[in-house]
Amino acid sequence: MSPRTIRAFIRGIRMSSSLPGTALILVLALPPVRHALERVMVVHMLVQIPLLAVAGALIAVSLPTRLTSIFVSWNARGVTGTLLALIVSSWWMVPRALDLALAEPLMEVTKFVSLPLLVGIPVALSWRSLGGMGQGFVLANVLPMWAAVGWLYVAAPTRLCNFYLVEQQAAAGLGLLWLSIAVALAACARVLVPASGHESVAPGPRTT
Amino acid sequence: MASLLVCAIGGALLWHGTDGLRAVTSEQARRRAIARAPRVLPVIRLEDQDGRPFTLEAYRGRAVAVDFIYTQCQSVCKLLSAGFQRIDRGQQAVAADDRLQLVSISFDPRDTPGHLRAAASHYRANGATWRFARVSDPRQLGQLLVAFGIVVIPDGRGDFQHNAAVHLLDREGRLAAVLDADASPEEVLRVAGNTTNASEFHENRRMTARMKTNRPGP
User: Fold this and answer.
1) How far, in Å, CA of B177 to CA of B196, rounded?
2) Scanning A3, A79, A163, A201, which has its CA 20 to 30 A from the CA of B185?
3) Residue ranges of A 163-182 with Cβ closer than 8 A to chain B
4) CA–CA separation, A51 and A72 (whole Å)
5) CB–CB of B105/B67 below 8 Å?
6) Contact between A57 and A124 (Cβ < 8 Å)
7) pLDDT tens digits, residue range B64-113?
8) How close, in Å, is residue B32 to chain A by CA atoms?
9) Cβ atoms B66, B177 nearer than 8 A
């Protein structure tokens, strides 16, 4: 197989893998799907919004190197992309943002564009560059923030979103709280499991 | 450098989007927007507990407090109505035209004039300075709620959840201030006095209070 064929093959894979991300956004944008996901606050916050970011990450994998290299050039060690994603994702945790997305079509469009473009893609292109320490630092900051926001939703004495019932607000808060704990546990497991695997394999080459 | 730029632009947008972190909920944003720029309200035909038609426009020249309720409400509307009752009782000695006019508007399509009459009689609303009302044409209810920024959602158990508050209209008939549902009558009257810029309104209130305290006991 010639290098040209291999390159064409890789390009083909990339083109085809941009499909799942785009298709996911289109499916999420279908009015019945959109309305179904936005009817319940916990689903809006913890299913639709994360899926839009995931769609962005799927698209990032398929972006041509020309585009990603531009991004990489101003994304030293993944810091800029991570900051961008952090800022944009924190907006979508503000109760007013959720209400605005339901009340203003322009804000709804902003949600569908900003989450894939400014959260999913930057995270996908930055996460590895952050390295273990950087990833740990980001998680150590983001997860307590999610937990705190979740707790605020649970403990708030008043309704924070005009478009959701107070019971839904508590459920969404609890969901965010559990999600932060689950991600923290998954991150711990990821750190601990490969380390133990390495230990059993690593001594091999050293002794030979 | 790029990180700084992202932080600066992102931070500025977040600051702007939350009104300097002072409006993280739409209710806070609504109140701040109204306080900054009083809202002109559409003319919507209402009918009170006695079936008499009227509009909020007709109150022009007087300060008005409006709340949105439904008569079967067992929670926050009761708080609103109790507050209105205390305001109404507290200004008995004030000349009728100088009083803060009170209007409780039901958003529940199930509320008939009969229900409104029962609520009015329960809270002793006389129908002059305090009216219980509903929108004459149900198709205009949405328009009225949007103008005030009220979102009503059924809870699936026959009740509603809504952003309950005391809404103050200035003498030009504009929505000028929004206060908490549990705001004290004194606070409501103080803000109503300020929004109308009517120092005599204020003075009148003070004189009434003085008259009451000086009044010899029975």
Assistant:
1) 10
2) A163
3) 163-166
4) 24
5) yes
6) yes
7) 999 999 999 988 999 999 999 999 998 888 887 789 999 999 999 999 99
8) 13
9) no
